[in-house]
Design a protein that fits this description.
repeat, mainly alpha, TPR repeat, TPR_2, elongated, Ycf3, 16 helices
Length: about 280
Amino acid sequence: MADVRTAGTGAFRRGRMALALAALLPLAACQSAGDAMESLTRIDPAQGSAENIASLSAVIERTPNDPEAYNMRGAAYGRAGRYREALKDFDQAIALNPRSYQAYANRALIYRYMGERERALADYNQAIALNPRYDTAYIGRGELYRQAGQSGEAFRDFERAIQLDTTDPRAYHRRGLLYQASGQHQFAIEDFSKAISLAPREPYGYNGRGLSYLALGDEENAFSDFNTAIRLDDELAESWANQALVYERRGENERAARSYSRALQLDPEYTPARDGLARTRGAA
């Protein structure tokens, strides 16, 4: 298979292949971590609090023509899940400063959350046009492409962010997912490891790396990564289902069933856990 690191994104599109282990497919497909790793200009979660929004509103009352104040409050609204209010603030930030590439990228992320893909793409494109070195916009647009199945375009954007020396772990995590989906697990492990080094308290890199270890037959390292993910966040269904997969492969069906059950408690719609529980309960 062509190496996408040297052959480019065209080869990446042509070279897609199934994962070595069929049992990994449903779990790897859920390895996106999606919006869970997303951020609005990397703000602290506390910035979505009612207190912080009130404080930012007071700033806007004092300086109603400050575009950055609207951008910051929009980010806080977005963090709080108040998307319509976030859009209004980003609209105002852009009206006051049409060259605010951060506001365009932030608004694009809100459009992504709302499922308005074309608007999100237009805003990411505008952010990049205004600042071709803005890594956050490449990462956001790349994830938009990845979710749409446009793997080549996604790879190119993540690669560009990495070439810009980004310190954002999402670039490496997302590129790792693309390597993983194409069966290039050693490259995926390297990217997940880099993401972990940049965000060691986030579980997503460990889950991703664990799946690639498992695909290469390295159960010990996979199990260690899944257990680390659980220690970091024991309310993530994916981590428990991944741990259960190792137990299942080892023939420890009773333990596997318990872990799959825990995953289903956390997310009753998580299909890999439901299917795994059916398998292991029947074999126990």
